[in-house]
Write a structure and sequence with these properties.
heterodimer; A: mainly beta; 6-stranded mixed β-sheet; 3-stranded mixed β-sheet; disordered N terminus; B: 6-stranded mixed β-sheet; 5-stranded mixed β-sheet; 9 helices; 13 strands
């Protein structure tokens, strides 16, 4: 399938290798380099006013994963500033973030695209195990 | 005898935090004595415009339309702030309101009603020009469309008595960002000023990473601050965080005003971003009116003492600084 939106490589840091892809639902191809080490773990995350579901995910250091983000209502954000992950989740699209965590720790993910009066507390936890 | 200007004596914007926001006295010391005249003349030579004393007030986060447990009194604090401003002996020329004028509403009709109520209350401020920027509640869901229709442009600049004011919009894209178009406009706007020009920026969100996990940042705020860095006299006023804060980067000083609806706690003391509970005994606590010893002609030292005594905030001593090579005969 074709990717209909541009691929944005936000950052590749020592903490996390990140590739962000947006496309139509069902469409997916991602940066091969991020997956050379093996099959990625797929993690589905749904966003809606004013929560992520699930609201906590765990990845493992050095193991590639893909976060598949969808929105059930309006545009939301998915920001983990310490890891340079900054993506929008638009309704009717799938946003895929390929990650290879390089540093263990606990990170707070926030919605950084204003979505309404409860927006300020829309967040989840991302844990990277050693 | 050649001597450098005494910046602490002559050249600064003095701010008085009195909870409803902050009262800034600009160049007040210039009004006194021959020294002030010399300073004004020097600055006029440097900046092309002679600064003149005036004061302005910053208010923030009025959230008109909000009515809930953290503040069941709705617009009461905003109305009290307007009444306080109207009673000031030294009337401000300007009132800057740094965003979240309204509380967001799903219904456009209801949101428009809240904007109208905001304008009705703000319109009772007598004798001052009211300048506003949007907060995310005002402009982030519709790209600033309603704000532009009812309030005017989301970013702009103007000059007032020798000070250049820049209103920046870091909300209407939906993200905490200023954006490349506005950044280019800002750089072009600043290009005509010498680096000694006094500049006041007012915006909604903090332009630095104050608390990213609480969305207290602007993603391209560094680019704004870098563009301002060559200027020697920059004051940035913002809201959004519903509490006071002071931050300095180089010559630039950044001040947050309290909200007029409810306060947020100190993020260093709690992980939860929850409003400070309403105190029925002291309904304006953390946002209400407070007495400040700034009576009579503004005297900087008294103002700063008053601030320390009543609010514990740092003094707003950001000011005009003379050019590096300048000296004067006293």
């Amino acid at each position: 399938m074709n990717i209909t939106s541009k691929i944005r490589v936000r950052a590749v840091s020592s903490a996390l290798a990140v590739v962000i892809v947006t496309g139509t639902p069902g469409g997916h191809r991602w940066g091969q380099a991020a997956y050379a080490a093996g099959q990625p773990t797929i993690v589905e995350i749904k966003a809606k006013k004013y929560e992520f579901s699930p609201n906590e995910i765990t990845l493992k250091k050095g193991e590639p994963a893909v976060l598949r983000l969808t929105s059930e209502d309006r545009t939301h954000g998915f920001l983990v500033k310490p890891l340079n992950i900054d993506a929008d989740i638009k309704p009717g699209q799938v946003t895929e973030i390929a990650v290879t965590p390089g540093l263990a720790g606990e990170y707070i993910v926030i919605c950084d695209h204003y979505c309404g009066t409860g927006h300020g507390n829309m967040k989840m936890k991302l844990t990277v195990l050693p | 005898m050649k001597t450098r200007l005494d910046r602490r004596r002559f050249l600064r914007i003095a701010g008085t935090s009195f909870s409803i926001g902050a009262l800034f006295s600009v160049f007040a010391p210039l009004a006194r004595g021959a020294g002030g005249e010399i300073v004004a003349r020097t600055l006029s030579d440097l900046n092309g415009e002679a600064p003149a004393p005036f004061s302005f007030v910053q208010l923030s986060d009025t959230h008109v339309g909000f009515n809930g447990p953290p503040d069941p009194l709705g617009t009461a604090a905003f109305e009290a702030a307007v009444a306080t401003i109207n009673k000031l002996r030294s009337r401000p020329d300007l009132v800057l309101i740094t965003g979240d004028l309204t509380h967001d509403a799903d219904s456009p009709d209801e949101h428009a009603r809240r904007f109208r109520l905001f304008k009705e209350i703000a319109g009772k401020i007598g004798g001052a020009s009211v300048k506003v920027v949007p907060g995310e509640n005002d402009a982030a869901l519709d790209g600033g469309g309603m704000f532009r229709e009812l309030m005017g442009p989301t970013y702009y600049s103007f000059d007032h008595r020798g000070v250049h004011f820049l209103a920046l919009d870091n909300v209407s894209s939906g993200k905490p960002a200023v954006g490349s178009e506005q950044l280019a406009w800002m750089k072009s706007d600043l290009a005509r000023f010498p680096h000694t020009a006094p500049i006041v920026v007012f915006t909604h969100r903090p332009l630095f990473d104050l608390k990213p996990e609480w969305e207290w940042f602007t993603s391209d705020g560094d680019e704004v601050l870098n563009a301002l860095a060559p200027f020697e006299n920059v004051t940035i006023l913002y809201g959004h965080i519903h509490r006071e804060n002071f931050h300095q980067r180089g010559n630039t000083r950044l001040y947050a005003a309290r909200s007029l609806i409810f306060a947020f706690p100190d993020p260093a003391t709690t992980a939860a971003k929850k409003p400070v509970p309403f105190d029925r005994e002291r309904p304006f606590r953390n946002l209400g009116i407070r007495v400040v010893k700034a009576g009579g002609e503004p005297v900087i030292e008294d103002v700063e003492l008053a601030m320390n005594e009543y609010s514990g905030t740092v003094g707003m001593d950001q000011m005009l600084k003379h050019g590096k090579e300048d000296s004067i005969d006293e």
